[in-house]
Amino acid sequence: YPIERIRNFCIIAHIDHGKSTLADRLLDLTGAVSKRESREQILDAMDLERERGITIKAHNVRLNYRAKDGQDYLLNLIDTPGHVDFTYEVSRSLAACEGALLVVDASQGVEAQTIANAYLALENDVHMIPVINKIDLPGADIPRAKEQIEDAVGLDAEEAILISAKEGIGITDVLEAIVTRVPPPSGDRSAPLRALLFDSWFDVYLGAVILVRVFDGEIRPGKSIRLLSTGKDHPVLSVGAFTPKRVDLPSLSAGEVGFVVTGIKSVRETPIGDTLADAGNTQITPYPGFQETKPMVFCGLFPTDSDQYEDLKEALDKLRMNDASFTFEMESSLALGFGFRCGFLGLLHMEIVQERLEREFSLSLISTAPTVVYQVRLTSGEEVTVVNPADLPPVTQIDTIFEPFILGSLYMPTEYLGPVMTLCQERRGIQRELRYLDSRRVQVQYELPLNEVVLDFYDRLKSLSKGYASFDYEWLDTRPAELEKVDVLVSGERVDALSFIVHKDRAYSRGRLLVEKLKEVIPRQMFEVAIQAAIGSRIIARETIGAMRKNVLAKCYGGDITRKRKLLEKQKEGKKRMKQIGRVEVPQEAFMAVLRVS
Ligand code: GDP
Ligand code: MG
Q: EC number(s) of the enzyme (predicted)?
């Protein structure tokens, strides 16, 4: 294909606005997938993604389209992850495109991630085409969607394409708009190689597979390439594209998008945002904006059954091969034994990893409450990073604790503004901007400590707005804060895995709520159990669980045998998620209770 007949584009949207459905229709219409192969949402590769309806990894499909002008075009659809945890990956995928379809659900209107993604597209000089989807719905309000697109995103909504991805209405208009409105790539095929690495994953047979956008020059098997982040050269074993089946090609040249296989074994050596050059070339300037992704949210993961420690380690190693942004390191806890302290980009990323471990590796896990990264300046002048509350140095050695802040953007129907603002204030939020998108929707921005967001903020937001408020955030900075560590003691023993770091003003109320919660979730034992919350040696709250009076089975004696068996089985089920702390058995919920205390 001559470069002027290539179009590289992606689809951006708030979750559930119809990105995957539209991608499927585009694949259908360009004949990329035969009817027999066609299945729902072909781009979402992992089961987990399919079930949650989210797209975790960016994929890329090459489509051939004969336009109304009679010419054949090569369209590269680059699928971007939609969630805030993966903003950097979205931004790199956008950098590989000249155009983006901005999909807005006609019944929901513009939402948090619509705007966040649109801004990323603007930053990357991507030409946006507004697409209003779900026009088949009775609740579709096209004029309102147009108004919001103009007000919130600043695009001319007169040019919006009206579609129903589900019913297949307007899809040809979308393809024509890609051909006529998205500019073709520019680049020099005979210049030295310069390509952007915008995704990579691990394949058992091929090793690290990298997805690139070539800006200048070409990549072909037999030649070697250099990755600028490491300065290492690697032979090119094969190049190609997905149709969506993987096909090898003789080369990838300026303007094109495709995969490269080099024999690199680990995705840690192929960071997203890296630049590829010809082997030995030191003259190429790296593609701007390269960032190392850093985990921002941490939690401890422990096998319920300590015999599974090695299995857990192996599973983490395997996941790590495919996910360079996830980190883990051995941790030992007095209460929970041997496990790992794991780092994630955000809460969703954490949930995904935990779920994959349990599902794909059949592991039963106990996770501690998520925590953020604290920078601690000691009185000695030394600075330490704390990712585990149990590791916070004694108060007497601490000069200042710095905590990470985010800028949260919240979008909601106006009637929920009051409760949302109350929630943000409770979480130590500092209000920045308040803006009405139209008479029914409002946007408000808050500077928030991440520490208060990892604590069930998202769940609270969803429940108080009946699911109508949406939330997006970006990193701001770290700020000094009056923070304290609260410890929990069960029968006088400190449960390191339950320690948490919290703002001084909230230490009492959170400590109290937590011991009350623990009292509810820890079953009665044969003896009395004291549950206490403490700051240093100062006890701030206490509850007592009375001793068990009768054997649970007693009431079944002489009774129905199946009922008795059921009871025993139920207890066995429960046991799986129990941990022994001293003489006390503590269920998994006890650890999660920390999360829900607010
Ligand atoms: P994504 O999260 O943006 O990828 O959204 P999906 O493509 O997974 O769509 C979310 C939901 O909206 C699914 O249940 C789709 O079937 C539905 N959906 C998508 N497009 C349309 C449409 O044009 N009309 C209607 N009624 N539903 C749609
Ligand atoms: Mg999707």
A: 3.6.5.n1
Proximal ligand: closest to the CA of 45: 2
**Position in ligand 1 atom list of the atom nearest CA 14:** 3
pLDDT > 70? residue 142: yes
Would you state the structure tokens that stand for residue 235, as one six-digit string? 């032979």
Query: Residue for token digits 């290539």?
Result: 6
Tens-place pLDDT, residues 502-554: 999 999 998 998 899 888 888 888 888 899 999 988 999 999 988 876 555 55
Q: CB-based contacts of 416: which residues, under 8 Å, 6+ apart?
A: 464, 465, 466, 468, 469
pTM score: 0.77
| Cα separation values, 173 from 26, 68, 160, 240, Å | 11, 10, 10, 29
Ligand 1 atom closest to Cα of residue 133? 23
- Whose alpha carbon is nearest atom 14 of ligand 1? 16
The string of pLDDT tens digits covering residues 485-497 is 999 998 888 888 8
> Measured on CA atoms in the order 280, 282, 285, 290, is the torsion positive or negative?
positive
**CA 140 to ligand 1 center in whole angstroms:** 13
Report ipTM (2 d.p.): 0.99
- What's the CA-to-centroid distance between 47 and ligand 2, angstroms? 12
The DSSP-derived string for 96-133 is T-SEEEEEEETTT-S-HHHHHHHHHHHHTTPEEEEEEE
230 contacts 252 by C-beta, under 8 angstroms: no
